[in-house]
Amino acid sequence: MSVEASKETLEFQTEARQILHLMTHSLYSNKEIFLRELVSNASDACDKLRFEALADDSLYEGDSELSILVEYDDEAKTITISDNGIGMSRQEVIDNIGTIASSGTRKFLDAMTGDQAKDAQMIGQFGVGFYSSFIVADKVTLETRRAGASADEAVRWESDGEGSFSLENVERAVRGTRVVLHLKEGEAEFANQYRLKSVIKQYSDHISIPVMMAEEELDDEGKPKKDEDGNPLTRLERVNSASALWARDKSDISEEEYKEFYKHVSMDFADPLSWIHSKVEGNQSYTSLLYVPTNPPFDLFDRDHKRGVKLYVKRIFIMDEAEQLMPNYLRFIKGVIDSDDLPLNVSREILQQNKVIDRIRGASVKKVLGMLESLQKNDTEKYETFWKAFGQVLKEGPIEDMANKERIAKLLWFASTHNADSADDDNNGPDEQNVTLEDYISRMQEGQDKIYYIIGDNYTAAKNSPHLEIFKKKGIEVLLLSDRVDEWLVSHLNEFDGKKLQSVARGTLDIEEEEDKAALEEAKKTYTSVIEHATKVLGDKVKEVRLSKRLTDSPSCLVLEEHDMSAQMQQIMEAAGQYAPKAAPVLELNADHQLIKKLNDITDDDLFEEYTYLLFEQAQLAAGAPLEDAAGFVKRVNKLLEQ
Question: Most buried among 53, 84, 186, 321, by the most CB within 10 A?
Fold first, then answer.
């Protein structure tokens, strides 16, 4: 294919255009990050070449000294960032730059709020990378050749960041990538030696690849040296410290350096919430630097999305998102793990069955849990921030990690009837989650041996559930669970500190006094015919109709047997395409309620049936279960209102 024949103009995909527009507007106040992103990309390209060259050192093409070069031209108003890393083929340029190939792109765009500060953080988490060039440039030219490809297989990509980009084959003798930014009017401040050096020092000092810039040579008097034609003499000097930050001693690393390194490995713009840096030596040697972000990514609950920390072996980059190093319930953790014991040719398949990895993973999990325990104990405000961002994910821990189940359980926060009275009814839950299981146990009544909970579709539904009535009357605290994961959690976290977790909407209760038992036995005699008749009317819709020990104000409620699947769990499983066995509930009636007393006096079979169905359906609604016949329910309500 000739160079001319290879030239084509392509359109950005719709999502790419939207991201470009959002980014250039939302990130303008933090515009110098374009240099951080481009230097970070160049560093990644060098890391990838170093890794691929482990299997084929001919990819170095005789030049194994990897570096990044930053240049500027104040007259032409351009900035150029070059690297001699892995480079890209024509198809890789289309895949990596012409499109935003992410299954989460649409979800990301839908998550935009219109608030510039919040959207800036969201865009940072998504990873703007190369596109950040257009914050300061009105045209970007990229030339690249993949290591090992011939000189005529190089590619030039060019765009003004609007609707399209051009692509053509060019000649390029050296491997790697060169990005030229043609600065917008008003952005000439960046075509300046001091400005560029200060941005590199601020954002990219931790990059392990040398970032070079040309410096004027000075004579003994401090004046610029010149060649025979009077042009200034220059030499390349390293701008960054170019050492792996995690390999340095903790005492030599500033808080600001830790924060900037986090932004490099996470592509986040916000500072991390917390981090832990540790070095292990002995039978197994490795270093880890692990961060807890401040904000959740937009795709946090996409369990199929790749996640994990970066894996290095002896300071050589091996892979991104090494998910084998961190369990799924800690998928929000960012950072690096650098092992001295793994082979350099390690693959994802080897990681899945490697004892060294298993030990590193186990120890790293303990480090993270220790960091969270320290936050919870010493900085409640920070832990509250963590909980609001990642609490629902941490609740997956007792389900996945049996070895650390009790330890994780101590980190869980819940809403509770203890402070529900002061809660805002419009609040849908997270702000009310501040009760630990240890808090609950410390307030248990004398003789109480269970931790009681209720699960609702949302905080308000749980707080107002009729199942709580007897507990409120007796002053017994109940945990209010409304997160999607809670049903799974309590099915695996059966007890804590020797106390069984008990749903107030399941089985029978054993909290009644002797006089309560006597009153219930007496009521059973009075309502024998009501129970029998209602059981016949409802048929297989219910497992049983019985008088309630738990209701004081409501006329009826639905109760499941101990091991039956709840309506919420059925919905979750059906949404996941799994079979969900349906269990008929028990209908409990409040013998002290006027509606039940009225039911006992009804002699008309049709009217009795209407009342019975109405009591059953309103109990369904209170339990968050869908009505099979909503129109029929409305007719029944209207009919009874007319009487």
Answer: 84
